[in-house]
Design a protein that fits this description.
By secondary structure, the chain is mainly β. It has no helices and 20 strands.
């Protein structure tokens, strides 16, 4: 694979497994053939700062990217062309982006402490920003049914949101001793996993918000 000219901050497979997308501190997004390792087309250029997060749409037709330039961008995965204008609304670095399972919406998490939902077709913000975290939002994810959004933050908490109304669901999930850097739902949507700079992984009951078992940590 041809190298990026900066750190690679995020990678993702296309739904059919044929391609890989990468986002880099060289301000570009690149598409790769997963079988040959060859670059597909030219770098996707448009961001003016580090690209922090990338993701494919569920149908593989589009790519979303989030950047330190405070914007979210949508790209046509086949042509490499930007789709519409940059999605603007965050006032700080965009750390994480994800498509909803039906591909109709995009969620983004930012250093401005907020989570935002966007209409993937129009690029318009949906509702108001989701506020509640007291520090950077480092990771966001949709539940498999698209009804909920989980977010992890430097404030050491995980939060659950109603994707339709934008309201917080329950209290913050507390237990990590340092920044939460990654969150993910289980395939059935019953559980949330979170990774943290406290060197542990935690599992949470998505319905009740309670921790499941003990923190998962390596024994050295």
């Amino acid at each position: 694979m041809t190298e990026h000219e900066g750190n690679v901050n995020s990678v993702a497979f296309s739904p059919n497994g044929q391609f890989i997308v990468s986002g880099s501190s060289d301000k570009t997004v690149r598409l790769w053939d997963a079988k040959t390792g060859m670059a597909v087309g030219v770098p996707l250029e448009g961001h003016s700062d580090d690209v922090r997060s990338v993701a494919f749409s569920p149908d593989g037709q589009f790519i979303v990217s989030g950047s330190d330039d405070h914007t979210v961008r949508i790209w046509d995965a086949k042509t490499g062309m930007a789709v519409g204008v940059p999605l603007e609304g965050h006032s700080d670095d965009v750390r994480s982006v994800a498509f909803s399972p039906d591909g109709q919406f995009i969620v983004s998490g930012s250093d401005d402490h907020t989570v935002r939902i966007w209409d993937a077709k129009t690029g318009m913000a949906v509702g108001v920003s989701l506020e509640g975290h007291s520090h950077w939002v480092t990771s966001v994810a949709f539940s498999p049914d698209g009804r909920y959004i989980a977010s992890g933050s430097h404030d050491r908490t995980v939060r659950l949101w109603d994707a339709k109304t934008g309201t917080a669901v329950g209290a913050p999930l507390e237990g990590h001793g340092r920044s939460v850097t990654s969150v993910a739902f289980s395939p059935d949507g019953r559980f949330i996993a979170s990774g943290s700079h406290d060197d542990t992984v935690r599992v949470w009951d998505a319905k009740t918000g309670t921790a499941v078992g003990v923190p998962l940590a390596s024994v050295i």
